[in-house]
Design a protein that fits this description.
Blueprint lengths: L7 E12 L2 E13 L4 E5 L6 H9 L6 E10 L2 E2 L5 H7 L5 E4 L3 H4 L6 H13 L3 H15 L15 H13 L5 E5 L7 H18 L2 E6 L2 H4 L5 E6 L2 E7 H6 L4 H8 L48 E2 L2 E3 L6
Parallel strand pairs: 3-8, 3-9, 6-7, 7-8
Antiparallel strand pairs: 1-2, 1-4, 4-5, 9-10, 10-12, 11-12
Length: 319
């Protein structure tokens, strides 16, 4: 039985970047939780802060950070209190790991894929290179990569196989949490389906939890237990997946769902008018107000913080 009730609790997580025009509030007071052996999908448009949230959780920070604060409680421990070296040794790639966008860019083209998958076990678990190849082979089998591929180079693999290798690399130290940043964005539809089948099997067999960052609503529904919708640096809705896909509450979530083509409906997909607000000078009220068809006066005056029937919805409609 898990020692702690929640695997991950994120409270008021903030990450701002310094630019010549001012500070960009890429992640601004984000709160959400993740249970053991669960998958939460973070949905939102490009530029809403999804990848910055992944960087904030894993402390993969660029040099121009102006503010980094909040709590990241993993298995009962606030890992934000750790030094950078303690975080590198005990958290990143040990307790939680990352599958980045574009697997080819994440793999070194001149090193065999078996050595790359084994490397985290060498660095973080203290295994020799020979010893580390055994868990690497085990993870190859979990993700459906043939054993003889261990001696191949990344350019010898297809896009789908490279993505599986990146997932095996994230799994090799047996972390409790894997963050997947657009893991299937450059793949064809059949390969996407195969990758999601791999992830579902890993979740079932290894008990791994996932944070899936994507703007692809249709494919994300394959893995999601819970859904968090992100807009302009903030989480605006959190719900279990079944209720969210059936009945999203936030006007932005409703517009996102209306943009998905339906096989069994003749209704045309919709689009969201306007543009997201500047994250350098965001509006003081609801950040979606300027694009919202249900906007009223209070939306411009103060930011909403509302919980509706166990589903967290940042919208004055549910006050």
């Amino acid at each position: 039985m898990p020692k702690h009730q929640k695997l991950l609790q994120i409270k008021n997580l903030t990450l701002h970047f310094r630019t010549q025009k001012g500070d960009v509030q890429a992640v601004d007071g984000v709160d959400f939780e993740l249970d053991y052996n669960r998958a939460v999908v973070i949905l939102g448009e490009s530029g809403c802060g999804k990848s910055s949230l992944a960087k904030a959780i894993l402390r993969l920070l660029p040099r121009n950070v102006s503010k980094y604060a909040g709590s990241i409680i993993f298995e009962g421990n606030d890992v934000m209190q750790l030094s950078d070296e303690e975080y590198r040794q005990n958290v990143r790639w040990v307790a939680m790991s990352l599958v980045p966008q574009a697997a080819m860019n994440a793999l070194n083209p001149v090193i065999r894929v078996g050595d790359q998958v084994a490397e985290p076990a060498v660095v973080h678990l203290g295994l020799s290179k020979t010893e580390a190849l055994q868990p690497a082979l085990k993870m190859f089998r979990h993700v459906g990569v043939p054993d003889d591929f261990i001696d191949r180079y990344p350019f010898e693999l297809s896009g789908g196989m490279r993505q599986r290798v990146a997932i095996a690399m994230a799994l090799v130290t047996s972390p409790g949490l894997i963050i997947l940043d657009e893991p299937t964005s450059a793949l064809d539809v059949l390969t996407q389906a195969n990758i999601f089948n791999v992830l579902k099997r890993i979740k079932q067999e290894l008990g791994t939890s996932f944070i899936l960052i994507t703007h692809d609503i249709a494919t994300s529904s394959e893995l999601a237990d819970d859904v968090a919708v992100m807009y302009a640096g903030q989480i605006v809705e959190v719900s279990d997946a079944r209720r969210f896909f059936h009945e999203p509450l936030h006007p932005y979530s409703q517009k996102l769902m209306a943009s998905v083509p339906r096989l069994r409906q003749e209704k045309d997909p919709e689009f969201i008018t306007g543009q997201p607000p500047s994250l350098i000078n965001p509006p003081k009220g609801c950040r979606f107000a300027a694009r919202c068809p249900k906007r009223f006066a209070k939306c411009d005056e103060e930011p909403p913080v509302i919980e509706q029937d166990g589903r967290k919805v940042k919208c004055w409609l549910y006050a």
